[in-house]
Amino acid sequence: MDWKTDWGLRGRMGFTMFLLFALYVVFIGVLIQVFNVGIIFTLAMFGAFSLAQYFFSDKLALRSMGAREVSADEYPDLHRRIERLSQQADLPKPTVAVADTQVPNAFATGRNKKNATVAVTTGLLRALDEDELDGVLAHELAHVKNRDVMVMTIASFLSTIAFFIVRWGWLFSGDNRQGAPVIVAIVASLLVWVISFLLIRALSRYREYSADRGAALITGKPGALASALMTIDGRMDKVPEEDLREEAEMNAFFIIPIKAGFVGKIASTHPSTENRIEKLRELEKEMETA
């Protein structure tokens, strides 16, 4: 496999992390001023949250989806496919997880190549044929190879903290003396959340194109992934609205976003399925003439 480093993705990941770090510093400064707490305490608190996010983000992501690690005895075909595709991608075989849900989707999580997990839903396994499933699994492995899973996890951390303050900060307003500082903190958190969300959205859209190209290189079949995307997109309309809302918070990590729920209604973290399919068809023609 002629795998080439996607410097466009690397550059975007680096720039996004730089901007998020600057936003992180400003956010901490505002919280210190508003709540009049020591900088050591604040840094220690954020440091503890960051370490927890780094080491346990994969487990939290799996739990939020109701996914569990499965053995080769339970899903032999799925394990064989991931092992074969991992060898083709020159990657260690990741942990395999399955979520029992009608939503046809997949995602990768983990802090590095040696600690990665590829998760699929039972809805996805029922919806796709063999080549389409290979395309989706290769797409998730491409995320692992590109090292963008951990970057997205770190980038999502600040957004999560800010959103938590926006959503629950009013509980700490107390009397009038505390009310004004808390309102300032909520407003600042709202701005941080919006900015970080837009940065994550911009990075996520590019990384999906990059993972699509990576999947085409791993399998040698861009058309199979294009077909899978059409199948998944079409099946989303048949999934109960309640199931879609429950899982929309994982949109940035899914192969196809859920267009429902709070996050799904704000903005898509992915390019349109039509644009992704068009680029895959173009890549298919290039590979045929090469």
Total separate domains: 1
Number of separate strands:
4
Which strand order do you get reading across the main beta sheet?
1-2-4-3
Tally the helices: what do you get? 11
Any idea what the shape is? elongated
Radius of gyration based on Cα positions:
20 Å
What fraction strand?
5-15%
Describe the sheet with the most strands. Answer: 4 strands, mixed
How much helical structure, as a percent, in the residues? 55-70%
Cα(first) to Cα(last) distance is: 14 Å
The low-pLDDT segments are 260-266
Output the structural class: alpha+beta
Mean pLDDT: 81
H/E topology pattern: HHEHEEEHHHHHHHH
Protein name: Protease HtpX homolog
Subcellular location: Cell membrane
Binding site for Zn(2+): 139, 143, 208
Membrane topology: Multi-pass membrane protein
Structure explained in plain terms:
The chain is 70% helix and 7% strand. Strands 1-2-4-3 form a four-stranded mixed β-sheet, sandwiched between helices. It contains eleven helices and four strands; from the N terminus they run H-H-E-H-E-E-E-H-H-H-H-H-H-H-H. It is α+β, with helices and mostly antiparallel strands. The protein has one domain. The chain is elongated, with a radius of gyration of 20 Å.
